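Need a sequence for this fold. Nothing fancy.
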């Protein structure tokens, strides 16, 4: 069966396996699916556009996943020359698995009764993942936290298209397939209380593994990620707290990061047909390799560690706030916007739906309940109107 390990707008989407037990994707669609993958957005939207313009239709191969009963110590290949405990790959995998444990423990503690269901999977040639979902808890309607480590191969033309050097002169030499490595953590958290916001976060690392002498396909690496907040009601102290934690994480590394990544987040989570953003933003960055690799690894680690202090204090304050049926109805309408963004604009979700992916995994990012009401217009000046106005006109919260 086709599988898609999906969280939030984060699905590592796989088409149906061929008889050879390999999964193959058209490269143009593969990079679109990575835009929203658990390993996630390894290539920016501009990279995907270059691939489409180049007309690349070669195959990318990833082994079919196999269920496991226990979590392995590592998903890295035992023969991986970059798999030493001091490598970026190994340290990033450790970071995302530590973050998964930390976030899940904090969510279970905040919920009080809900527990995560865990699925572990691997691939024969190396790689795998851990999917965790908490559903119908006391506090959380639905919460998912996934990690994955993936090995695969891509044609050199797809690689060059992604990096914007289609047609580069290879000196007459013919390049072979380009191996790649990808790893990431991704999560979506939907609380029950209308005054408790939804949270999404995703951090990932991508690396080509081509030998240095492969023509037109040099070794390369990228980082990407982000954390964003989607409330139904604006409680300014909560939004300011959330953005302050994001800014603090960014400022430890580069003072331009927060304003740059905050705008990037506002622009990315835009529901074009509504003319509004999905929520009140946060940070988002993609295709990052313009700084020192160690610095970006430390930055991604800091951002992942900031999830709990950015979000759990808000949940603790709001999870028991009294609310009315009208408050719940508005939350359901805003959940409808969340659904619209994921089903219409999220590249991983739409790709999975078109290619026969595992529906339960693809749609795990969606809330259990949502609402659509014909021509609903909140009263001007109301709390609902204030939220909608902030989604239409992004604000600077700090």
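Here you go.
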């Amino acid at each position: 069966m086709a599988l898609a390990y999906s969280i939030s707008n984060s699905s590592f989407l796989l088409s149906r396996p061929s008889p050879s037990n390999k999964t193959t994707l058209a490269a143009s669609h593969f990079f679109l699916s990575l835009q929203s993958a658990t390993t996630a957005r390894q290539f920016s939207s501009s990279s995907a556009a270059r691939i489409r313009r180049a007309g690349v239709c070669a195959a990318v191969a990833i082994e079919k996943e196999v269920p496991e009963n226990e979590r392995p110590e590592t998903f890295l290949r035992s023969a991986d020359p970059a798999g030493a405990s001091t490598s970026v790959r190994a340290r990033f995998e450790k970071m995302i698995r530590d973050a998964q444990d930390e976030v899940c423990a904090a969510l279970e503690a905040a919920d009080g009764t809900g527990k995560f269901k865990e699925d572990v999977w691997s691939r024969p040639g190396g790689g795998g993942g851990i999917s965790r979902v908490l559903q119908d808890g006391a506090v959380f309607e639905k919460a998912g936290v996934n990690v994955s480590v993936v090995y695969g191969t891509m044609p050199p033309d797809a690689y060059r298209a992604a990096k914007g050097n289609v047609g580069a002169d290879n000196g007459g030499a013919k390049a072979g397939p380009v191996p790649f490595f990808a790893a990431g953590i991704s999560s979506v958290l939907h609380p029950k209380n209308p005054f408790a916001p939804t949270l999404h976060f995703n951090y990932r690392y991508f690396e080509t593994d081509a030998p240095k002498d492969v023509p037109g396909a040099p070794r390369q690496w990228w980082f990407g990620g982000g954390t964003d907040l989607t409330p139904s009601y604006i409680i300014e102290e909560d939004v300011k707290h959330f953005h302050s934690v994001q800014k603090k994480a960014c400022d430890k590394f580069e003072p331009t990061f927060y304003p740059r990544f905050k705008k990037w987040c506002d622009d990315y989570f835009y529901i074009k047909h509504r003319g509004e953003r999905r929520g009140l933003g946060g940070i988002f960055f993609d295709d990052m390799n313009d700084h020192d690799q160690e610095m970006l690894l430390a930055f991604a680690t800091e951002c992942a560690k900031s999830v709990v202090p950015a979000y759990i204090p808000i949940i603790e304050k709001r999870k028991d706030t009294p609310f009315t049926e009208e408050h719940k109805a508005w939350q359901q309408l805003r959940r409808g916007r969340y659904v619209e963004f994921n089903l219409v604009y999220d590249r991983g979700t739409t790709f999975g739906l078109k290619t026969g992916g595992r529906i339960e995994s693809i749609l795990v990012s969606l809330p259990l309940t949502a609402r659509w009401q014909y021509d609903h217009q909140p009263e001007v000046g109301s709390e609902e109107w204030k939220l909608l106005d902030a989604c239409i006109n992004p604000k600077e919260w700090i």
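For context: Confidence is low (pLDDT under 50) at residues 1-46, 48-58.
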